[in-house]
Amino acid sequence: MAGKYSISVLLVMLLVSAGLSGCFGNDSTYVEKGIPGGLTLACLSDAKYTSLVVEIDYEAGYMPEQSSTELLKTRLEQVCNKPQGIEILLTETNFEHEGQWSSSDVRDKSWDKKSEDPQTGSTLYWQAIFPSGQYANDGVLGVAVDASTVAIFGESVDDAEGPIFNRPSSEEIENSVLVHEFGHLLGLVNLVYQSPVDHEDEEHKGHSNNEDSVMYWAIESANIGNIITGQLPDDFDSDDLNDLAGMLSGEIETDNQLWTN
Fold it and tell me: Model-level pTM?
């Protein structure tokens, strides 16, 4: 559990926050397609959606590591009730986009490439894109832009790799960032609910204050590569898991849902 993934908070420089404008799309148009967390109950429950397909569209040279996709599947299987299974579907894609990416760019290009609507029959479709280029906000490794879509910026992940022995590798960083962004699709932390436990970082809303949680605020920052020792967190902590269980059971009220049981 969380203690297994304990990391050192000793940094060679002060971590810089990317803020909500980094990890989340910061314009209002994403509301039309649901906010991050808008399909939380659809994923947690099997009342309607009995399977989940995670569509991963990547540009040539930016295919995610196998360890990242396998880890993501494992983490989703731990919390999402999908008796018909969870499938990872990888497709090489040309997004026909040059330069930096805004949240609107991510949303527009990803929806152009989606193979299915997120809510199709009894299957829920979520999507991650791995485009070339970088996000408009410096140092942002990943972003969640609506209820079903995230982007991971491989160039920034590679740049974040620590240059000194025993710092996180780009593969380790990608593992954590990918799970982190899908954690936002699950509504973590306090995106579509209010946790009974005070574990949200006051200065980085939507993120955990626990450095052993994959939802820790620094996971989204390129400065994560400056962590000197220890394994990066790539799992939800007990507070995250209890929040998800509470939303599923109805003990925690969940807002802004595109589907409810």
Answer: 0.88
